[in-house]
TrEMBL record:
<dbReference type="GO" id="GO:0016887">
    <property type="term" value="F:ATP hydrolysis activity"/>
</dbReference>
<dbReference type="InterPro" id="IPR051782">
    <property type="entry name" value="ABC_Transporter_VariousFunc"/>
</dbReference>
<keyword id="KW-0813">Transport</keyword>
<dbReference type="GO" id="GO:0005524">
    <property type="term" value="F:ATP binding"/>
</dbReference>
<feature type="domain" description="ABC transporter">
    <location>
        <begin position="5"/>
        <end position="230"/>
    </location>
</feature>
<dbReference type="InterPro" id="IPR003593">
    <property type="entry name" value="AAA+_ATPase"/>
</dbReference>
<protein>
    <submittedName>
        <fullName>ABC transporter ATP-binding protein</fullName>
    </submittedName>
</protein>
<dbReference type="InterPro" id="IPR027417">
    <property type="entry name" value="P-loop_NTPase"/>
</dbReference>
<dbReference type="Pfam" id="PF00005">
    <property type="entry name" value="ABC_tran"/>
</dbReference>
<keyword id="KW-0547">Nucleotide-binding</keyword>
<dbReference type="InterPro" id="IPR003439">
    <property type="entry name" value="ABC_transporter-like_ATP-bd"/>
</dbReference>
<keyword id="KW-0067">ATP-binding</keyword>
C-alpha cells in the first residue's frame, strides 16, 4: 500500500527538551486520517516536520515518497493548515488568493474564486475583519487551491464555535471526495474525528499506540465487565489495552480478532472516544512500553 507519510525513529529536540522522540509511523494513502493524543504527545511537531517547517534532529521522514520541502515540486504536493489558521490581517481575501497564485505552481484560481464566492466571503474584506470561522475557511481554500496530493491540518477547528466547526468539516469532507485527497488531521475533538475520519492514529509520548482503519479498530476492541479477574486468566488472544478493578469487579478493554464468548463477562462495544481514551491511559501505555523494552 502506498504511504503518504513514513517516519522512522523520528525526533525533534529544542535544546535539552525533546518535542518528539523515536517516532515510527506509516500512514497509507487514500484516507482521512485522525491524529489524536494528549497535549505534549508530539502531534504538532510531527505535522510540522511532515510539512517541511522543521528539520528533524534524529531519524528520518518521507512524505509522498520524498523529503519534506525538498524543492518547489515537493512543496506543491502538500497543503498545510496550521493550528491558528493563519492569515495576514492586513491583506484582503482577494490579495490572499493572488499571493497563493504567485507562490504555488499548481494553483487553481477558478476553484479558489468559486469557493470564496460560495462561502460568501467579500473579496475586498481584510482578513483581520473576518470571523474565526471565515478565517478558517479562507485558510482551507488556500490549502485546497494548491491542488495538493496530501492536506495536513493541525487542530484547524479548535477555536471555532460548533456551527463554524460543522461548516468547516463539511467543506473538508466535500473537498476530500471531489479532489481525491489524502488528509491527515489532528484534533482533540473526538466527535469531529468520528464524523470525517476513516483511519486513526493515537500518539502518546511520541509513540504510536494504535493505528488502523476506524471500522476495523472498533470491531476488534471490546469492553469486558465481570467478576474480578487477573489479566493472566484472560484467553491468550485477548490483548489488554487498559484495566480497572474494584474489590469485586474487573473492567478490561481488550483487543482481539476472535469473538468473545464467556458467560462471566458482559461484553460491550466501544465508541471511538472510548477507544482513544483507553490507549491514552498513562499506566497502560507505560506497561506496554515496558513490555516492548523487555522484548527487544
Amino acid at each position: 500500500m502506498t504511504s503518504v507519510l513514513q517516519a522512522h525513529e523520528l525526533g525533534k529536540r529544542y535544546g535539552k527538551r525533546w518535542a518528539l522522540r523515536e517516532c515510527t509511523i506509516d500512514i497509507p494513502a487514500g484516507h482521512v486520517v485522525g491524529l489524536v493524543g494528549p497535549n505534549g504527545a508530539g502531534k504538532t511537531t510531527l505535522l510540522k516536520l511532515a510539512a517541511g517547517q522543521l528539520e528533524p534532529t534524529s531519524g528520518g521522514i518521507t512524505v509522498l515518497g520524498g523529503r519534506p520541502a525538498a524543492g518547489p515540486a515537493q512543496l506543491a504536493r502538500v497543503g498545510f493548515v496550521a493550528q491558528d489558521t493563519p492569515a495576514y490581517a492586513g491583506l484582503t481575501v482577494a490579495e490572499h488568493l493572488r499571493l497563493g497564485a504567485r507562490l504555488n505552481p499548481r494553483w487553481d484560481a477558478a476553484m479558489a474564486r468559486e469557493r470564496i464566492a460560495r462561502l460568501g466571503l467579500a473579496p475586498n474584506q481584510r482578513a483581520g475583519k473576518l470571523s474565526g470561522g471565515q478565517r478558517a475557511q479562507l485558510a482551507l481554500t488556500l490549502g485546497l487551491a494548491k491542488r495538493p496530493e496530501l492536506l495536513i491540518l493541525d487542530e484547524p477547528v479548535a477555536s471555532l464555535d460548533p456551527l463554524a466547526r460543522r461548516e468547516f468539516l463539511q467543506s473538508l469532507m466535500e473537498a476530500t471526495v471531489e479532489h481525491e485527497l489524502s488528509v491527515v488531521l489532528s484534533s482533540h475533538l473526538i466527535s469531529d474525528l468520528e464524523r470525517i475520519c476513516d483511519y486513526l492514529v493515537v500518539l502518546v509520548e511520541s509513540r504510536v499506540q494504535i493505528a488502523g482503519e476506524t471500522d476495523r479498530l472498533l470491531a476488534t476492541h471490546h469492553r469486558l465487565t465481570g467478576p474480578r479477574r487477573a489479566p493472566d486468566r484472560l484467553p491468550a488472544g485477548q490483548h489488554v489495552v487498559c484495566a480497572r478493578h474494584t474489590d469485586r469487579q474487573s473492567t478490561y478493554v481488550v483487543r482481539t480478532d476472535a469473538p468473545v464468548h464467556d458467560p462471566a463477562w458482559t461484553v460491550t462495544r466501544l465508541s471511538l472516544e472510548d477507544l482513544v481514551l483507553a490507549y491514552m491511559d498513562k499506566p497502560a501505555a507505560a506497561d506496554r512500553r515496558a513490555l516492548l523494552e523487555v522484548q527487544r
